[in-house]
Write a structure and sequence with these properties.
Helix content: 25-40%
Family: Belongs to the LOG family.
Structural class: alpha/beta
Organism: Paenibacillus catalpae
Protein name: Cytokinin riboside 5'-monophosphate phosphoribohydrolase
Keywords: Cytokinin biosynthesis, Hydrolase
EC number: 3.2.2.n1
Number of strands: 7
């Protein structure tokens, strides 16, 4: 795995552990020679992970929609920067450039990006690992919701293996490096009768 797309909050959150984990992830990615692909911002957890990769000699590629964000949010110290037309193009290019995905804590944009790549994995559009850094139990409600979706018959239990939950960035990177996609049953239960 040479490039990982990281989805992360454009804010830092209210606990220092969020920033510390973003920084640690960036340090580890640089140490392992893994390039960061992300949304191109200099602020929030997005900026912290990018700064850490760069400060430790790593490569960072940013992808940002033209005119959507204020100029002061764009990180000007990146290795490579792509300006695209809209959010759909942004996500498509970030996915094309990446060998896997990691979600740090964030808000609606982070959730949307995470669920989109997880849905793509479920449908077989990609076979890349989808990692979730569950800092301070941030993503536990989502883990519980996924289990509930299986219990309620809306999702196959094999889909639970499409997302790798870890609290520690080093352990998550190790899991992602060893990832083998779970064999997926037919998603549509009514079609398998």
């Amino acid at each position: 795995m040479s490039k990982i797309c990281v989805f992360a909050g454009s804010n830092v959150g209210n606990s220092p552990e969020y920033e510390q984990t973003a920084t640690r992830l960036g340090e580890l990615m640089a140490a392992k020679g893994i390039e960061l692909v992300y949304g191109g911002s200099k602020i929030g957890l997005m900026g912290r992970v990018a700064d850490a990769v760069l400060a430790n000699g790593g490569r960072v590629t940013g992808v940002m929609p033209r005119g959507l964000f204020l100029g002061e949010m764009m990180h000007t110290g990146l290795t490579e920067f792509h300006e695209v037309g809209n959010m759909h193009e942004r996500k498509a290019l970030m996915s094309e450039l990446s060998d896997g995905y990691i979600a740090l804590p964030g808000g609606l944009g982070t959730f949307e990006e995470l669920f989109e790549v997880a849905s793509w994995a479920q449908l077989g559009i990609h076979k890349k690992p989808v990692g979730i850094l569950n800092v301070k139990g941030f993503y536990q409600p989502i883990a519980d919701m996924l289990t509930q979706a299986v219990s309620a018959g809306f999702m196959r239990d094999t889909n639970l293996g499409l997302m790798l939950f870890e609290e520690n960035p080093s352990a998550l990177l190790d899991k992602m490096a060893a990832y083998s996609p779970p064999e997926q049953a037919n998603k549509w239960t009514e079609l398998s009768k």
